[in-house]
Amino acid sequence: ALLARDPAAHVALDAFDSLLEALQVVGADGQVTILAERAVAHVALDDANAVAGLLRSLRKVGADGQVAALLARDPVAHVALTNVDAVERLVQALQEVGADGQVTILAERAVAHVAFDDAYAVAGLLRVLGRAGATEQVAALAERAATHVALTNPDAVASLLWALWEARADGQVAALLARDPVAHVALTKPEAVTSLLQALWEVGAEEQVTTLTERAVPQVALDNAYAVGRLLQVLREVRADVQITALAERAAKGVALTNPDAVTWLLRVLRRAGADQYSTTLAERLPAAGHCDTFFHLEKNREQFRLGREPDGSAAPSWTWNDLD
Fold it and tell me: Is the torsion defined by CA of 272, 277, 282, 284 positive or negative?
């Protein structure tokens, strides 16, 4: 009865994916065709996300004729290239439906016109083009990215370095490093600094690793004990012993104590790094922050503070009921 009302001819086309699949499940092949044809005729060709989503939906329900019809409208000549993530998704969708020729055309357009304000998105596009076998376009995009991409986000720069390294674009890795990203990236987020450190170390940029550790350690925020601990671990991996001590000292005195589990983990990281004195300093901050249970459950404190802790920080002595006033 519902199918007899011809929903495929009437539904709005802003969210048809679920209906396409439902129609296929109940065997309404004719309605699948009608809805697929409507979607193909009305999809905005300048919207890479919309085209990619439609291609995937049509492929999922086996609407090969409508896939061909959509490709015949030549979407790759019309899609806007301002959203690099959307272009990346469209490349993947085209590859999935076997439209290799359109992948090449879109890749050529993207390389020539894509914006380079988001290094992370450009890195993703490099990887997708590489998987699609667009070797020439990967080389051209790598060259443009290395010289034009924005350098403010350390995590994004790290992602681009990895992508260039995976593409074996050694010349472009060198070109990106020659722009001295360490002098331009923001250094407040320890997790982002960690990503860039690892990437620089992997590509053999040891001088930039040293510079980054020296710049970052005094500046990174201390509001996330997990992130600070991870940065300490990577500083050990890159053998930045002086900076390990400097960050351990900062963390011991200033790391946020809002997450006791994260602080406990950071304490273990400090001990493994040989920074026992800073581990002790950090642990001694816990009771005043209201985390007495965490403090008492630390290994060295279990026995020492078996009977509690005095306000001055010393271990409480044993007592009997007769000692009470």
Answer: positive
